[in-house]
């Protein structure tokens, strides 16, 4: 049963990737607005219902790696090393994400998103969702001892940092300028349980 379940999951993942790859190729070849859902399904040799079982909308086809992006953000909080402060961990992960998204290979997709009002709107909605997920992870960490409002504020700052760095001529320099400001906001948000403003407090050994 476990083997069958694993095979089924691998098949689903392969189908999802095939649909996403096909959609992106068609969008870049013909233009996003010129390609419909039925075009993608036919080219990928799947039913329209199968496509919608993997992707909720046409816009979602362009952001196929969105779930991985969000997981990486939350893991920067939940998976950071014992005693590692939060903000440097987020700085490191955001830099890695920005480098990936601003690579030369990603430029055609970025231009396509920038040229489409529908894709820009969808991108903005995803960033709000990512900020909410990051805020939830921060607020749930007992070692960080910040209010929900502080967690949501810092999360928004971090997502804005990602956006601003992605638009900058030198993304790393932009993040190096922005994150000290985020660090300062984090330090004054609320004293930690240890009584030292800005300390993330001790983390359990793993």
TrEMBL record:
Record has Transcription regulation as a keyword: yes
Family annotation (InterPro entries): Homeodomain-like_sf, HTH-type_TetR-like_transc_reg, HTH_TetR
HTH tetR-type domain residues: 13-73
Domain of life of the source: Bacteria
Protein name: Helix-turn-helix domain containing protein
Keywords in alphabetical order: DNA-binding, Transcription, Transcription regulation
DNA-binding region(s) in UniProt: 36-55
SUPFAM superfamilies (UniProt xref): Homeodomain-like
Keyword DNA-binding: yes
Cited Pfam families: TetR_N
